[in-house]
Design goal:
The complex is a heterodimer. By secondary structure, chain A is of the alpha/beta class. Chain A is built from 22 helices and 24 strands. Chain B starts with 8 loop residues before the first strand and ends with a helix. Chain B has eight helices and six strands. Classes of the chains: A alpha/beta, B alpha/beta. The structure holds iron/sulfur cluster (2 copies).
């Protein structure tokens, strides 16, 4: 029987966790990392514990606690999530773990779905926690059981850093055997190790530094680093993680004779770098995002007095922004080695000239779904607070409300309420109404709300509650009363929670009911102090999945005057014919009825059966 | 074109979030593994999924990265006409375009911000530089039983070009579509395969 399967990178990583015998897995959803926990939770026979935590700091602490008892734990998140978890991370480096712990942090070069493109390897350097950087979904899977073993051996957590093209890439993956041993949890009191009071921390820091030598020695000879010296080659190429497959392809394509060092671990394999240096006149380095490897290579060159020429990102020509690809690698190689330039230089790809086609293509930005309740919340919000009001927002589906004119800021998870407070405290006189999703509110919004209320910020906080974490692929959260496994649990009462934090004004509205929502917002605006409006309506995708069917709407062309009021709502199901100057509704309508309430001419009605 | 030692066949699938590009690419990827070929694929997730423009890359017989270089693809499979133009830069000069002529208007068009180009103009533009197989796959899917099978019609069409046996392809279609829709999709696959042969 073949053990080769076609799978998503994140599914391969989940498989790696099973093969390595993971016992406690926690995380917070974030593209491109989310499917790892989703896959594990969906497995029928499960002999591990899996949870969605409320944020990354909490998730990391859950996994750390588990690893302190001697079991194998994993925490998953995206790169920006590690900022949230940075506090425990840096101290966890001091305590280390007793069992094994893998910190999976998915990076997103080019910001495919992120607010910045930070490089997690910097956290590895900063915290002195080793890091593994896979180049294919297969390697990603294979690295996980290794990481468990390695973590246990050095008694340290290990960072595992896939990038978008690994996490969301697909490939044939050869499966391996499943580790059936399950160490039992047993916490052993060791105050010097687990209690980081200054006295103990002072001792742990030199220990952590001491440990780096062992870590380096172990990783240097691991299968993730490999050096191929090529006869007569004057050029050495170093590539790490996914950049190594791009670089390899570029080298093959252009038939270049080069020695090749593939790096998959940090700290980097110093001996292999030295050997390559001794055998090359020039070294070209490809790595995704920051010049982490390059800096190390330059340091080693200086230490050894080598006069090898180091070419990478610091002085160019490898770009330090966006993601790499084969074309960029080809282009750089051609440039440096003065080869004939490849067919299509990378710059062409950068700004592909659509005029070349002499046809203007309409933009196709991602939009909120037809019938999405956030759209009507934003519509009413803008109406009540006015165009000149300030609308700080947050991270989730509702960020797409940027097209509705109600997303003025997006800083980070939970940043909407705090930014709104700051603006008010600065003396801003315009009305301020911020928006935050249910999951984001549980993540880090609650603290912001508590702070706003306590410090008397006169703002309105809108919790757009679609009863799910929709943007990252519909993960449950504490508002739903459901665990990741589908099991029922206590459901948070948002209103009671906000009141508990001290809010004097908390009201819930149904955003499909424009009139009611408008009244609630008006009262909230009047209220002096921090007011909370909860607009609650199921995510349309989730509603459809749970079998809710609404009758779609249609527009009577006779009655339509072409006033465009409904069109301006921005629902993808409403079209406007510029010739006939009439609006119409297409097959995407989910029957929310919001546009019907807007039309002053009663032209929009339910489709008659 | 895909090159020796790197990949046997490079395919780009372009479309709009919600059209089923991922399922189309999964059918091909799974079929490749059944046909004992290594395969790499990359897809658009997250933000862009919600009605945005999406593109998938599939490389058959490839051990390296999933991203097809510029002008590298053997075939561009476009589930929507304007999306064919948008990703044309990935197609090699002697590559083929298989395109569904049924347009999906983006909100920028329905709300009057942009205009949608004439579909015939798009097709003749594509024909100026490349071999083109253009047909209304959505209509064919309706004939087969459901407009949602449009992606499988397109998979049928591209099956004429892939280094994978038709039987394996059809087997994977049946494995991956919802059980209730197997007959409709098998028919959709055949219809797509036939129309692209003409
Ligand atoms: S009822 Fe109107 S607003 Fe709601 S989904 Fe249908 S067309 Fe869009
Ligand atoms: S709001 Fe009513 S009258 Fe105005 S364009 Fe829409 S359907 Fe026509």
């Amino acid at each position: 029987m073949s053990t080769r399967e076609y799978m998503l990178g994140n599914v391969a990583i989940a498989r790696g966790i099973v093969e390595g015998g993971g016992q406690v897995i926690s995380g917070y959803p974030g593209t491109p990392s989310s499917e790892i926990i989703g896959t594990l939770a969906g497995m029928k026979e499960r002999d591990f514990y899996v949870e969605w935590s409320v944020n990354e700091k909490v998730a990391l602490e859950v996994a750390a606690g588990a690893a302190m008892t001697g079991v194998r734990s994993v925490v998953t998140m995206k790169h920006v999530g590690l900022n949230v978890a940075a506090d425990p991370l840096l101290t966890l480096a001091y305590t280390g773990v007793k069992g094994s712990m893998i910190i999976i942090v998915a990076d997103d070069p080019s910001c495919h779905s992120s607010q910045n493109e930070q490089d997690t390897r910097r956290y590895s350097q900063f915290s002195l926690i080793p890091c593994l950087d896979p180049c294919t979904p297969q390697e990603a899977k294979d690295m996980i059981p290794y990481a468990f073993e390695f973590s246990n051996k050095v008694q340290m957590p290990v960072i595992f850093r896939p990038t978008t093209r690994i996490s969301h890439g697909k490939s044939d993956v050869e499966l391996g055997p499943v580790n059936e041993t399950r160490p039992a949890a047993e916490f052993v009191k060791e105050l010097e190790r687990w209690v980081m009071v200054p006295k103990n921390a002072r001792v742990q820091h030199p220990h952590l530094l001491e440990l780096q030598k062992d870590i380096l020695n172990e990783l240097e000879n691991s299968p993730w680093n490999s050096l191929e010296l090529s006869d007569g080659a004057k050029v050495g190429v170093i590539a790490s993680g996914i950049a190594s497959v791009y670089a390899k392809e570029a080298i093959i394509k252009q038939g270049i004779n080069a020695s090749f060092l593939k790096i998959g671990t940090y700290p980097v394999p110093e001996n292999k770098i030295r050997t390559l240096m001794e055998n090359s006149e020039r070294i070209i380095i490809f790595e995704e995002m920051e010049p982490v490897v390059e800096e190390q290579v330059r340091i080693i060159a200086q230490e050894t007095g080598s006069n090898v020429e180091v070419i990478g990102k610091l002085q160019g020509p490898v770009p330090r922004i966006y993601e790499l690809n084969t074309d960029i690698c080809s282009d750089v190689l051609a440039d440096v080695l003065e080869l004939e330039r490849p067919d299509v230089p990378a710059e062409v790809a950068e700004d592909f000239d659509y005029d070349r086609c002499r046809i203007d293509l309409p933009m196709r930005p991602p939009v909120m779904c037809p019938g999405c309740s956030h759209r009507s919340t934003f519509h009413v919000m803008k109406k009540v607070y006015g165009k000149d009001a300030i609308f700080p927002s947050d991270i989730g589906c509702y960020t797409l409300g940027i097209q509705s004119g109600t997303v003025d800021t997006t800083l980070c998870m939970g940043g909407s309420i705090t930014v709104a407070s700051g603006m008010y405290q600065a003396g801003e006189k315009k009305p301020i109404c911020c928006s935050i999703g249910d999951s984001t509110f549980f993540h880090t919004g609650m603290n912001g709300l508590l702070n706003a209320i306590y410090n008397k910020a006169d703002i309105t906080v809108t919790i757009v509650d679609n009863r799910i974490t929709a943007m990252t692929g519909h993960q449950p959260n504490p508002g739903m009363g459901k665990l990741v496994t589908g099991e029922e649990t206590s459901e948070v009462d948002l209103e009671a929670l906000c009141k508990g934090l001290g809010a004097g004004f908390v009201e819930t509205a149904d955003p499909y009911d424009l009139k009611q929502t408008e009244e609630v917002f008006k009262r909230a605006k009047e209220y002096k102090g921090t007011s909370v409006v909860i607009t609650e309506q199921l995510c349309v995708i989730d509603a459809k999945r749970s079998g809710i069917r609404r009758t779609p709407f249609t527009i009577d062309a006779e009655k339509c005057t072409g006033c465009r009021l409904c069109v301006n709502l921005g629902c993808p199901a409403i079209e406007f014919d510029t010739n006939t100057r009439k609006a119409s509704i297409n097959a995407m309508c989910t029957g929310c009825g919001v546009c019907a309430a807007l039309c002053k001419f009663d032209a929009i009605t339910e489709v008659k059966k | 074109m895909s090159s020796e030692g790197i990949s046997k066949f490079d395919l780009v699938i372009a479309g709009v979030g919600g059209q089923g590009t991922i399922l189309a690419s999964d059918i091909i990827g799974k079929a490749a593994v059944k046909g004992n070929m290594s395969v790499r694929a990359a897809e658009t997730h997250g933000m862009a999924q919600r009605g945005g423009s999406v593109v998938n890359h599939i490389r058959l017989g490839c051990e390296l990265g999933s991203m097809i270089p510029m002008k590298g693809a053997d075939v561009l499979l476009a589930l929507e006409p304007s999306e064919a133009l948008r990703y044309l830069e990935f197609l090699s000069d002697d590559g083929t375009i298989i395109v569904n002529t049924d347009p999906i208007l983006p909100v920028t068009v329905t709300s009057g911000l942009c205009t949608y180009p004439d579909v015939d103009a798009i097709i003749s533009k594509l024909e100026e530089t490349h071999k083109v197989k253009a047909f209304n796959a959505t209509e064919l899917a309706k004939e087969a039983g459901h407009p949602q099978s449009m992606n499988v019609v397109m998979v049928g069409a591209v099956s004429n070009y892939l280094p994978i046996s038709v039987d394996t392809m059809l087997e994977c279609v049946k494995e991956l579509v919802p059980p209730k829709t197997i007959d409709i999709n098998a028919k959709a696959f055949e219809m797509g395969r036939n129309i692209a042969q003409e």
